[in-house]
Amino acid sequence: MTRLSAAQRQVQADFLQQARDGRLEKPVAEGSGLPNLAYTCADFYQLEQQTVFRNNWVFAGFQHQFVATGDMQPVTIAGQPIVLVKAEDGVIRGFHNVCRHRGARLVNEPRNCKKFICPNHSWSYSLSGKLIARPHFHGGGQHDVDQSDCRRADLVEVSCVTWHDWIFVDISGEAESFSSCIEPIAEVIDAYDFSALRFYESLEFEIDANWKLAIENFIEPYHVFSCHPWLNSFVGMEERQPPTFKDKVLSCGYQFQQTDPARGGELPWFPNLPGEKHNRGDWFVLFPNFGFEIFPDQVDVFIAWPQGPAKCCETIALYFVGDGASAEKYSAARNHVTQNWNDLNHEDIGIIERMQQGRASEGFDGGVLSPYWDPVLQHFAVLTTEAIDTSSVSGS
Q: What is the pTM of this model?
């Protein structure tokens, strides 16, 4: 396990003392969310990378970006440089993005190669991570190509799964099975034929706020009437259901009375969609930072990428059904949906950044929560705290 610094052990102890000061065990109306240091402290941010993001299934990339054998994509997860690659068998695999000899980073940008070649001493590895050759390893002209004796020099693989178009990695290799984690979502979306989905485009945003605020805002509908005029007119607060949770999945949804161009009005629908889904929207978060919404005509993925204690990036990836993603006759409809998501997110960003600014205040101690809307936020705090607490043996 990752060894924590003295500063990280101290902030871990401070955080657990504050978070476990009865606030997370109490009924929601008497409890609260996470303390301020979880959103502002640099040492906590590093601690979080080594626990929350190291010990859970974390989104790492999109399958549609891996078209050909040898397509490679470098990413950073839990502070670790990782490379994703489409191997010869068509499976997308993840490896620690570092040569086993002197630790040079292997891949710096997306590319296609038949093998990994270290730029330092030209050690080469297959797309399945096996060492192929070490030039001049035994002296000038004395190349090492005896793979039977090279297992210690193979690339270090990380647990990696692909679910629909989405790739997840478990850096620690100790998270519960991905199928168990995703089961509460899989049960709800069983009626939707995801094979009919086609990726359209991604929207990217930079936010001066902690990633957790973006996720909390995504799953919490209480702010809709105040922050989103169009969305509130589409589905009012009286029609909205409170968020729920099960294990590491947070979820919410609603029935809408009539379709709208931004929600199932002008684009093709999922085939053979049951009647009860015709006016249904559902959205989910898989802890820690992957979310998506599903409507009769679209799936919209939401990822909050941590960039520091008070900074994150957001990706919203839009998917439509069949030729709804590409046919010219649906161009205006796609533009309408895209503009709607862009507008909604910009309405959120200002509020998220103001919440981040408020985390500097001694007058805020985790929040006074609504027992109707906010149990999901307390559960998110519990998940975060449990993830942080699992590291207590690693620093001793």
A: 0.94
